[in-house]
Amino acid sequence: MIAINLVRSGTRPMLALARISGFPNHPRSIDAYYPHYADFRTPRLFSRETDPSNGPLYMTAAPSGLFSQSFMVRLAVPSATTSQTVLLGILLALTVLFSLRQWLLPRALPGIPYNAAATRSLLGDIMALQQELPSNMSEWVVRQGARHGAPVYQVFLVPFARPFVVVSDFREAQDILVRRAHEFDRSDLAVALLRGEMPRFHACLKTGPAWAAHRRLLQDVMSPEFLHGVAAPNMYAGARRLLDLWRLKTSVAGEGRPFAAAADLSFATLDALYDFAYGDGAEERALVEQLALLEGLSEEAREGLRERAGEEAVAFPCAPLAPAMEALLRTTENIPAVAVTGFPDIAWRVLAWFPRVRRLRRLKDRFIKEQVEKAVARLDKAAAAGEDQDGVGGFSKLKCALDLILQRERTLAEKDHREPVYWSDAIKDEMFGFITGGHETSANVLAWGVKFLADHAEHQAALRTCLRGAHPAAVAGARFPTHAEITHARAPLLVATIEEILRLAHATAMTDRQATADTVVLGHAIPRGTTVVLVNKGPGYTAPNLPIAEALRSASAQKALAERPDAGCYRLRAEEEEEQGMGRFDPTRWLDADGEFDPAAYPTIPFGLGPRGCFGRRMVYVQFKQLLTLLVWQFEFLPCPSGLSSYEAVQVLTNKPRQCYVALREL
Asked: Quick one: 434 exposed, middle or buried, by C-beta within 10 A (0-12, 13-18, 19+)?
């Protein structure tokens, strides 16, 4: 209902919006002219009462359901006349603007907790996020669970869109990802964030024939035979380069003097992915450039580094990367830049006009095409020599993942009676996806890992003892274990340490899925198209479970518990366990009574689960086994000064530590 107060006064009228019910802090004022209120003829919309003593004229209007709230206006009307059309235009504009605002405001799903202030702002929860924790969206989302005290809640982080429903419970997350995968698919938002750079990457595809075809093309890349026989030797070589670099830096800085480690771990991971994806075909290696730079420093320059550092960390120079490597990394940085806009589709279109972006994309595409051409030449040469592989059982002649993918394409083409297509958007995007999907995540997990080891000397020492016991031949020969020895060694504490680092690093703190049909999650109705975010931190993971009635769980979740009632990951985490430190670094929590590794000992989802889980998770374990074995074998990680040991996380694509330094003692 609109109440209009018309008052005769002066010669110039003013229309002042005095109050909108529910919005007392939003005054507005505008000028208007209205001549003959007596000629106002809108009996269907307006009613009026006239004070015979030349007092105010009161008019009310109810524009047919446009408003659910009322507001009051006062109009000073002179004896002079103005156009009634202006007043009608003003009223119509106010009506339209207010109605549009009401229509655009976020709408909460019924029955699910949310921040009430979010539904009164066009930006939803975005302003609260910016005020409370602007550097880490995932951490802010996790904290809302404790704020609401509920395992299911909703947040509004994309303007003019549906809320995200957040689930903070391991059993429900596992059920959605594994046993209810037919009800949930890759979310539209996740697809939109990636498709600007690699639209044909399998992670950008909804589950269906196209996605299945991509997985068939890639299926042998993560097989144990290929990982152990081809990938492990390549990754081992990269790990040895990191050891050489850190030995040199330790000798320059001095034993126990800290230096920044994040860039070196990033380069080591990038080299490992290059080794895995392209093998010897790509000559560029980031760590090779860093080693060459440091080895070329004169003794005077090295002394200068130590003097400038004083009591602080030694700052080493960093060599520039090869243009192709630089293009791959810089192109990947477009993804978080697009994500923060909230409108990825529009942002990708705008970004495509930037000359720098187009130049980097051309460099990236040219590099991948050159690698494809080299791989095809290798396959043709092997075929001519009678050494062609079947792409399934034999990998001795294959040098890298690209060789295997192209061999797989050749095999599939023969079965389908068609010519193989070696250069396509699908292959280009898959090869770029290897770098994008694996580089930042692995590098940041390793950055957290060296911090955990340095700050928990007892667990580091126990791991070193385990490794030396698992490699007696290497100990006897005073050498490093080989890649084959590391791959096949029985070292349960090594696997447990990797799992604990992954659990607490929270490099990817959230996994998202989109409901493909109307469904129910823990008793709450979830409409089709709603994005469901599954966190792997907070209640149920690093804090005690929030209470959930068993009857609210799906039949499949209840059945899973009945089949494995002793599984540690299903056990209810009580308050007393919080005192023991659910968020504390302790690899032994993954070992059973016999000292064997138990993968179901604790709730964690570092790579997602089910058919849409992280494709490269097996590769990560192979890489981490090689790298951690060699690092702990060669160095003792010493605690860094408190000013260099912050555990604050910053979110880019994944969560990384704001500070990552190492202080090493060579063994």
From this structure: buried
Average pLDDT of span 212-229: 89
Distances (CA, A) of 324 to 189, 282, 284, 429: 29, 10, 8, 15
Give the pTM.
0.83
Look at residue 323 in the predicted model and tell me its pLDDT.
Answer: 93
Identify the H or E element spanning 171: helix 170-174
Residue 580: the pLDDT is 60
For the beta carbon of residue 35, count every other beta carbon within 10 angstroms: 17
* pLDDT single digits (tens) 241-261: 999 999 999 999 999 999 999
**Residue 314 pairs with which residues in a beta bridge?**
259
543 neighbors 169 (Cβ within 8 angstroms)? no
The residues with which 637 forms a beta bridge, in sequence order, are 664
Round to the nearest angstrom and report the end-to-end CA distance of the chain. 81
Question: Which has the closest alpha carbon to 71: 87, 91, 57, 86?
Answer: 91
Distance from C-alpha of 531 to C-alpha of 169, rounded to nearest angstrom: 16
SS (H, E, C) 524-539: EEECCCCEEEEECCCE
**All domains of the chain, ordered by start, with CATH?**
224-507+588-666 (1.10.630.10)
Contact 78, 57 (CB under 8 A): no
Closest CA to 269 of 656, 665, 666, 536: 656
Question: How far is Cα 452 from Cα 316, in angstroms, rounded to an integer?
Answer: 23
Helices (H), 385-476: 401-415, 425-455, 457-470, 472-476
Residue 664 has pLDDT above 80, yes or no: yes
Element (H, E) at 19: strand 15-20
Say how far apart CA 614 and CA 611 lie, in whole Å.
Answer: 9
Of 590 and 88, more confident? 590
What is the token pair recorded at 26?
Answer: 């939003």
DSSP secondary structure letter of residue 322: P
Question: In this structure, are residues 211 and 443 in contact, taking their beta carbons and an 8 Å threshold?
Answer: no
Query: What does the alpha-carbon distance between residue 585 and residue 632 come to, in Å, rounded to a whole number?
Result: 17
- % of residues, the chain, pLDDT over 90: 57
Pick the closest to residue 533 from 113, 139, 138, 165 (CA basis): 165
- What is the bridge-based pairing of β-strands 661-666 and 635-638? antiparallel
On whether 614 is known to bind a ligand per the annotation, the reply is: yes
Cβ-proximal residues to 472 (8 Å cutoff; 6+ apart), any chain: none
